[in-house]
Amino acid sequence: MTTGTARAVARRAPSPYFTAADVAATGLFGFEGAVAAVAAGLDLLGIVVVGFATALFGGVIRDVLLGDAPPAAFRSPLRIIVAVAGALLAVPFGSLAADAPGVIGVLDAIALALFVAAGAQKALEWGSNGFVVVALGTITGVGGGVIRDLLLSHSPTVLTTGFYATAAIIGAAAQWATAARGIRTPWPMAVGFAVCVTLRTLALAYDWRLPVFG
Amino acid sequence: MTTGTARAVARRAPSPYFTAADVAATGLFGFEGAVAAVAAGLDLLGIVVVGFATALFGGVIRDVLLGDAPPAAFRSPLRIIVAVAGALLAVPFGSLAADAPGVIGVLDAIALALFVAAGAQKALEWGSNGFVVVALGTITGVGGGVIRDLLLSHSPTVLTTGFYATAAIIGAAAQWATAARGIRTPWPMAVGFAVCVTLRTLALAYDWRLPVFG
Amino acid sequence: MTTGTARAVARRAPSPYFTAADVAATGLFGFEGAVAAVAAGLDLLGIVVVGFATALFGGVIRDVLLGDAPPAAFRSPLRIIVAVAGALLAVPFGSLAADAPGVIGVLDAIALALFVAAGAQKALEWGSNGFVVVALGTITGVGGGVIRDLLLSHSPTVLTTGFYATAAIIGAAAQWATAARGIRTPWPMAVGFAVCVTLRTLALAYDWRLPVFG
């Protein structure tokens, strides 16, 4: 359980590495969510709303589950502005990006890995146990994609895409194992990011799949 | 960031104008959500559950995002009773209302504008910045409709309906701008409500649309 | 409204009866959610993610709505481990269970009733009023099934299944009425559990339905 002292510390000084990864992933997911909304034929506002929700949902859920309220996204204008800016970029560049699915796939792998590293890092800074570190890293990474798919009435692709959440879980676990050996920030984040982005990119390139049952 | 003092003040005395708008919108959304559930062929309980969720979800999300836990809806019986009462009215009056879509459209515009004004007002009382005021006003207004559509397996209509979330955003922004000039409660709420309900009603009457891309 | 003192007490010592019911229901819902994911043709990871979300979502929503953050599921590894273990059991036993829908129906009724009893008990321990006790018992019971159906792109079955949420509401109300007469833990929980599981099982056996309107 998180102690009052650990919380007070976390509130005073979230690591700048955490903030950098979290904000960069927010902008990328805002763009990606908006590209999917353009492809679904939504109007300007729908594009902004889907981009906004995709960008912010994973981090908001993470903060609510840690008991960090109000969530970082609603404490300062920064993440809201970055999310909307990312979404608006999809208006001129969206159909270009849709024609290059490989580019979107790699951008998505980078954003996923940034959010996984940021989520696991924040859980570590709050003194969470290993299971919670892995769960929150994964939820932060895949949460945005789940809400995007629900808003666009798709079945969530994180559940049907080979090695998507798997890459998130293995990346977060590697990050936790690195931190548990006493290695200091930002190196556990770097390990979590590298493992997740590598696995996801290889899975894209070689079309990895997990077994199906029943 | 909300200070401890601002929170204590907000907790002691939410403005009665806020409470009136919030509770009135809760009853209207309870009725509306239940009308949609009747049209979807759900049984008595499904009607109550959809009405309950539609009525309370926007305000609950707003309170969770502000860090005001437990949400107002779960601190006293008031909003729960109003939501269920609104939903039950859909049993005798639902099919009547479904035959008059113009009536439902206007009721919905009023409920949307009340929730936008209430959400933006609460964010202002908690000392939030302008981006958060607009985001929370909009989320409070459209949240109920999103959960209603998810529960009934529709694509969220706030994303496909011309000028729906747009009216919410412009109304909340007008409310924030009024409050930022130092004009006192309840006048910023009145401005936010009037702008939102006017835009949404005009959009209904003249079938306004935003541009589509891609 | 929950007082600071009541909260401190609840935090120090949740009743062991609450914990037992909550953890048992978590494992059962993990298994059930994963069985549905196997039937939907998801891969190993999708099965674990759906089982995890089905098992934990109801209790997480309950704790967020009570203002008990971080939720119990994220304070210790216990519920996460139980949820994942329940989900993994669906890999060898899932298709067996799918061939015996009666068995799944009864397991589900038991898990529903355990979560209703646990949710209502926690609300009682936090000093909530009767409406909140019934609402939180019901939300804890049906929340997992709603998120499972959203993730698998079904319309939520709690809304279309005869007497599902109805059994939850009546069970939670009976539990509240028992506690309100001054009868001590664990007897109100036993009453809530027994009423809910009995009604749901009878509804399965005799195909009870509520009236449909419109």
Order of helices and strands of chain A: HHHHHHHHH
Cα-atom radius of gyration of chain A: 17 Å
Report the biggest beta sheet of chain A as strand number plus sense, adding barrel if it closes: none
| Portion of residues within helices of chain A | over 70%
Largest interface: A-B, 32 and 36 residues
Spans of chain A of at least 5 consecutive residues whose pLDDT stays below 50 are 1-10
Say how many strands of chain A there are.
0
Write the layout of secondary structure elements.
3 copies of one chain form a homotrimer.
Chain A: H1 4-12, H2 16-39, H3 44-66, H4 78-98, H5 101-125, H6 130-151, H7 157-160, H8 164-180, H9 187-206
Helix pairs in contact in A: 2-3, 2-4, 2-5, 3-4, 3-6, 5-6, 5-8, 5-9, 6-8, 8-9
Question: Can you offer a commentary on this structure?
Answer:
Helices cover 77% and strands 0% of the residues of chain A. Chain A is globular and about 50 Å long. Chain A contains 9 helices and no strands. In chain A, helix 2 packs antiparallel against helix 5 (101-125), helix 5 (101-125) packs parallel to helix 8 (164-180) and helix 8 (164-180) runs antiparallel to helix 9 (187-206). With 214 residues, the first copy, chain A, is mostly helical. The interface between A and B is medium-sized, with 32 and 36 residues.
